[in-house]
Write a structure and sequence with these properties.
Blueprint (H helix, E strand, L loop, with lengths): L8 E5 L2 H4 L12 H5 L22 H11 L3 E5 L2 H4 L9 H16 L3 E7 L5 H7 L5 H18 L5 E6 L1 H9 L13 H28 L2 E7 L2 E4 L4 H24 L4 H7 L8 H7 L6 E4 L3 E6 L16 H4 L1 E4 L15 H14 L5 E5 L16 H19 L4 E7 L18 E3 L6 E3 L1 H12 L3
Parallel strand pairs: 1-2, 1-11, 2-3, 3-4, 4-5, 5-7, 6-8, 7-10, 10-11
Antiparallel strand pairs: 8-9, 12-13
Helix pairs in contact: 7-9, 8-9, 14-15, 15-16
The protein binds 4-nitrophenyl beta-D-glucopyranoside.
Length: 459
């Protein structure tokens, strides 16, 4: 029997650009993803988030899906350009109204809102005018936007996440160029990452100073990390795996939990890695009330001996030459439709690593799940592979909680099939199947399975 601790938070997650649609409705400004999707060849089949799941017009229906599953919490993100169409300046009241409505309806149904402020859809104006995350000004614009959100929603929102996956923004947006804004560089990721950390820290500072004592919520950041397993037992490969984790998660978690970038990054990246002033560090250090983690997969890491493989689109945890690490997978591992390997034990190893390195933080899994080639057959979707994915990963989560790892919540990615970034609508992560012609939602068998898990607080 697998029985999670009492009060364990069961949720599911989405993000604004991936589900809302209504990309130019009611005063919303364009985001970098609205623009990126227009560039030929960037997104599978030329898909865009213009309509997506049309969640913007289907609030009641989607909250009913959550209610039917017995979800205790729902993690969604706010589209910055709905609140501030130009990223700064005038507030768009219709945008505020939309999220007020969403939050109120969730609370009416007894579902706790967990709100991400930035899930990659930067207002396009800030990309043009302020160089996006390469510009220092974007840090202040984010802090101002966050302030507006705390002011309007903070009486009802008690769990805030500043930035979703700074690693993805920096690496895939500014390093490999496969996500918006599509830049390719071996130095810009470090600058973008630096600004993302500062933006997070400033927003947290504002929340703590102006709101936390009255609103009584908490605020943190969500980082993503795969597990890196040493390919062999040699000290060189063991060190390579550790280095890979430091370049992946340590990059963003070390400044927050230890007050400095990992030593190995400072040495290897040199002057391409910016440094914090003492005053900035003051804000960055201890700026997360919980350890948000998105986890999907595992790879082997080996010392590259100066001969790094070409950077692969996914799975390359940092610029490979800087790390001197080669990554690989075991061909016997099963894979999801993203070609991400299914390695449940990597999840428990990562949780244990975080627990030890960051001195036993409260960990919240803000995303975990798998894409599979689901099909609607006679009105039903059977997805036993997804059930197995959730089951085996949750078993590993349970194991570590038994050993004292402080894991308090688990959010399944995702509530429904949606716009999977560069993969468009082809890759399906949802607990609910979405027919992208009719926009009809159908619970998959995994949704039913998870409903029972939530009801029994285990399985
Ligand atoms: C996350 N990687 O993205 C995001 O938070 C979600 O919006 C997304 O839909 C989900 O995971 C599934 O992709 C990631 O290359 C994208 O390591 C790429 C990576 C990790 C997470």
């Amino acid at each position: 029997m697998i029985q999670f601790p009492k009060g364990f938070v069961w949720g599911s997650a989405t993000s604004s650009y991936q589900i809302e649609g209504a990309w130019n409705k009611d005063g919303k400004g364009p985001s970098i993803w609205d623009a990126f999707c227009q560039i030929p060849g960037k997104v599978h089949a030329g898909d865009t988030g213009n309509l997506a799941c049309d969640h913007y017009h289907k609030l009641e229906e989607d909250i009913a899906l959550m209610k039917a599953m017995g979800l205790k919490a729902y993690r969604f993100s706010i589209a910055w350009a709905r609140i501030l169409p130009k990223g700064k300046g005038e507030i768009n009241l219709a945008g505020i109204q939309f999220y007020q409505n969403l939050i109120d309806q969730l609370l009416t149904q007894g579902i706790e809102p967990w709100v991400t402020l930035y899930h990659w859809d930067l207002p396009l104006a800030l990309q043009f005018e302020d160089d996006g995350w390469l510009g220092e000004a974007t840090v202040d614009h984010f802090a101002h936007y966050a302030d507006i959100c705390f002011e309007h929603f903070g009486d009802r929102v008690k769990n805030w996440i500043t930035i979703n996956e700074a690693w993805v923004v920096a690496m895939l947006g500014y390093g490999q160029g496969v996500f918006a804004p599509g830049r390719i560089s071996n130095s810009e990721p470090y600058l973008a990452g630096h600004h993302l950390l500062k933006a997070h820290a400033k927003a947290v500072h504002i929340y703590r100073k102006k709101y936390q004592s009255t609103q009584k919520g908490r605020i943190g950041i969500t980082n993503n990390c795969d597990w890196r397993e040493p390919l062999t037992d040699t000290p060189k490969d063991k060190a390579a795996a550790e280095r890979a984790l430091e370049f992946f998660l340590g990059w963003f978690a070390d400044p927050i939990y230890k007050g400095a970038y990992p030593e190995t990054m400072i040495e290897r990246v040199g002057d391409r890695l910016p440094s914090f002033t003492p005053a900035e560090l003051e804000l960055v250090k201890d700026s997360s009330d919980f350890f948000g983690l998105n986890h999907y997969t595992t790879m082997y890491a080996a010392d590259a001996d100066g001969k790094t493989m070409a950077a692969s689109v996914y799975g390359n945890g940092g610029l490979s030459e800087d790390q001197n690490v080669n990554l690989s997978v075991d061909p016997n591992w099963e894979q999801t439709a993203m070609q991400w390997s299914i390695v449940p034990w990597g999840c428990s190893k990562l949780l244990t690593w975080i627990d030890a390195r960051y001195d036993r933080p409260e960990i919240v899994i803000t995303e975990n799940g798998g894409a599979f080639n689901d099909q609607l057959v006679a009105g039903k979707v059977e997805d036993p592979q997804r059930i197995k994915y959730y089951q085996t990963y949750l078993e590993e989560c349970y194991k570590v909680t038994k050993k004292g790892v402080n894991l308090s919540a688990y959010f399944a990615w995702s509530l429904m099939d949606n716009f999977e970034w560069a993969s468009g609508y082809e890759k399906r992560f949802g607990l609910h199947y979405v027919d992208f012609d009719t926009l009809e939602r159908t619970p998959k068998s995994s949704a039913k399975w998870l409903t029972n898990v939530i009801k029994n607080n285990g399985f």
